[in-house]
Specification:
Number of strands: 4
Strand order of the largest sheet: 1-2-4-3
CATH topology of the largest domain: Muramoyl-pentapeptide Carboxypeptidase, domain 2
Structural class: alpha+beta
Distance between the termini: 77 Å
Strand content: 5-15%
Largest sheet: 4 strands, antiparallel
CATH class of the largest domain: Alpha Beta
Number of domains: 2
Order of helices and strands: HHHHEHHEHEHEHH
Shape: globular
């Protein structure tokens, strides 16, 4: 049922008051003439009081209506647009910027989203990417190599970190298949294959061979390639901002059962700004989880 309007309510109140006055007048007229004369002032007072009450009620109703009208929020005005067509608020920037789902897994070693781990070797196993020398500070003073897209992103990231007071150095970049053969065999010779498989990647299973991965150090030289590196200015800056340049910390804390490697806060991997930002905003720690791949804690055979 529809609610009565306020103007209708005022009319009914005025009608009720008038009816009451009429009934009162009829009652008085039934009395003696002398009594009617004596009560005439009372009737007048009653009429005046009734009229005043009705007017007060109408005034209060008007005040209520005005208050309700003033309390209603104004309609949201559309924001101007260069084309002159009104535009309205869109979803949050974070939701608009991040893709709704992860991209497909790639086996192309030249694709930034290629996954290289203890269950997924490179194909071909001796893959060699295009390489350039990035314009960044290196720890040894010698040149390091990266593929072109990673080198460009690294230059931007290193410059931003330096500007923010967290300068870093490039410790190690690209490693060829032949270099990894020598590195891995050296571990085996010193500590045996079981220990080597924990500390080093087998040839053809190293991210460094793609040109997308490198190790960083703090410009102070503190805690290089050690767990305490996580507390340096460079590591803290990278944890907060690396995704803005397309990088992730590839081997995060306590995910060795997924990645196959213990925590390495110095090991960065380029996967592209969109994917890295998506992972960061969703709180996804590993590339395996992001791409829906099974864990790779150990070699398959």
């Amino acid at each position: 049922m529809a609610a009565p309007s306020r103007s209708g309510s005022r009319a009914r109140r005025r009608w009720v008051a008038s009816a009451a006055l009429a009934a009162l007048a009829l009652g008085l007229s039934a009395c003696s003439q002398t009594t009617a004369v004596e009560r005439t002032p009372a009737v007048e007072r009653s009429e005046a009081e009734s009229t005043t009450a009705v007017e007060r009620s109408e005034a209060e109703s008007t005040a209520v209506e005005r208050s309700e009208a003033e309390s209603k929020p104004p309609n949201a005005a559309p924001s101007p647009s260069p084309s002159g067509v009104p535009t309205y608020p869109s979803p949050t920037a974070a939701a608009a910027a991040a893709p709704s789902s992860a991209p497909a897994v790639s086996t192309d070693p030249a694709n930034p989203l290629v996954v290289v781990n203890k269950r997924r070797p490179l194909a071909p196993i001796d893959f060699a990417p295009e390489l350039v020398v990035p314009n960044v500070v290196t720890a040894s003073g010698q040149q390091e190599l990266l593929n072109p897209v990673t080198a460009h992103a690294a230059e931007q990231m290193f410059a931003a970190a330096t500007a923010d007071g967290a300068p870093m150095t490039l410790l190690s970049g690209y490693r060829s298949y032949a270099t990894q053969v020598a590195t891995y065999n050296g571990w085996v010779a010193r500590q045996g294959q079981e220990a080597a498989d924990v500390a080093s990647a087998r040839p053809g299973y190293s991210e460094h061979q793609t040109g997308f991965a490198f190790d960083i150090g703090d410009r102070s030289g503190a805690c290089s390639l050690q767990p305490c590196f996580k507390d340096t200015k460079a590591a803290l800056w990278v944890a907060a901002h690396a995704h803005e340049y397309g990088f992730i910390v590839r081997y995060p804390w306590w995910y060795h059962e997924t990645t196959g490697y213990y925590y390495e806060p110095w090991h960065l991997r380029y996967i592209g700004v969109e994917a890295a930002t998506h992972m960061h905003r969703r709180g996804v720690a590993t590339l395996e989880e992001y791409l829906g791949l099974p864990a790779a804690p150990a070699y398959g055979g």
